[in-house]
Design goal:
alpha+beta; six-stranded mixed beta sheet; four-stranded antiparallel beta sheet; 8 helices; 18 strands
């Protein structure tokens, strides 16, 4: 049976170092899933395995709290100056890809599941490490339907242990600007799509800077042009330029309205090729019992907003929040790390939040 003994910082750091050494870029989470299955079995936990998702639990009561975070990582970027998967413990830190996003949450939640003290005849604590959060596919958004109904869900993301009750919506637009090709030596014979694209891209900057809508917690809707591609040869005036807009939205200026304004601002040369609005604005009441328990467990007086998007969006009914160890600025950054003391603090917050919530 699971233990309710407090784990040490050293134990948590060793476990995190182990899973960092497992390559788990989105779509390749199989090895880390097997590691968790072995740990669940070792500690006598009940669990189920579907695809690249797991659910483990303690208790058989009707009051259910879910811990959810993701096993996958992005690929390492070219800025790494050390092995992304070394998992080294140096200078009070665990180093490596996914150590902060979201390895600290994985290890903290798992050990909180093992050690939280609650009445298992009345309550159930569940832990779902799921895949594909960094992309889109077969993770929590689908596995959610296989999890018993829960009263509340803690989503694990690196928030510097700030308790977050909101995140902005997100959309991506694939844009195409059209022109007419010609030889670069005779540009007057063509209609340069690059120039039209440049002018429309600058309209996106002006549009974003002119947004006046504000949210007290989430701030403002933002727009960023993130990719520009075009041209077939160095001596050919391009007939097409493809570019991408990343939008992050608030309720006062949501995905639909922002996309509408973008379309209205574009010249006749630029059209939207594809819209992908996967996430809307997600918010929860700061007075919900789960939020109060997490604030008490973390010693926080108030709540914050999560700066990215997460699988919290797929928790569309229950109480919820986002919290976890790790600095947000290190997510997807080169030479990622998490401080061991921060890892331990996250574990303590998860454990105490579960105990407070399940005893109420």
């Amino acid at each position: 049976m699971p233990t309710t003994t407090e784990f040490t910082q050293d134990t948590l750091a060793d476990a995190l170092s182990r899973i960092v050494r497992i390559k788990r870029v989105s779509g390749n989470e199989h090895e880390v899933i097997e590691w968790f299955k072995a740990q669940f079995g070792k500690h006598g936990l009940q669990f189920k395995h579907t695809g690249r998702n797991l659910l483990a639990w303690r208790g058989q009561g009707d009051k259910r709290l879910l811990f959810n975070t993701h096993t996958d990582t992005v690929p390492p970027n070219h800025g790494y100056t050390r092995d992304p998967w070394d998992g080294a413990r140096e200078d009070g830190k665990v180093w490596g890809l996914g150590s902060s996003d979201a390895g600290g949450c994985l290890i903290g939640m798992f050990h909180a599941l093992l050690s939280a003290d609650f009445d298992e005849s009345k309550c159930t604590l569940m832990f779902a490490p799921t895949c594909d959060e960094e992309t889109q596919g077969e993770g929590f958004e689908h596995f959610r339907n296989e999890i018993p109904e829960f009263e509340a869900c803690v989503t694990g993301e690196p928030t510097d242990c700030e308790v977050c009750t909101a995140e902005r919506g997100m959309f991506k637009l694939d844009m195409r600007t059209a022109g007419k090709s010609s030889h670069a030596a005779r540009p007057w014979q063509g209609d340069n799509a690059a120039y039209h694209a440049a002018r429309d891209i600058l309209k996106i900057e002006a549009l974003y800077e002119g947004f006046e809508e504000r949210d007290d917690l989430l701030g403002r809707t933002t727009l960023a042009v993130t990719m520009v591609n075009g041209g077939v040869a160095r001596n050919v005036v391009p007939s097409e330029i493809d570019w991408v807009i990343d939008g992050r939205t608030i309720e006062q200026l949501d995905n639909a309205e922002t996309i509408k304004r973008i379309k209205e601002a574009m010249s006749e040369h630029t059209k939207v090729q594809r819209e992908k609005a996967r996430f809307g604005v997600w918010k929860r009441d700061e007075n919900d019992p789960l939020v109060k328990c997490a604030c008490s467990a973390s010693g926080k007086q108030g709540v914050s907003a999560f700066g990215g998007v997460s699988d919290a969006w797929w928790n569309d009914k229950a109480q919820g929040l986002i919290v976890g160890p790790g600095f947000p600025k290190l997510s997807h950054a080169a030479n990622e790390y998490i401080e061991e003391k921060e890892l331990f603090r996250g574990y303590q917050i998860y454990k105490k939040t579960a105990e407070l919530f399940l005893e109420t």
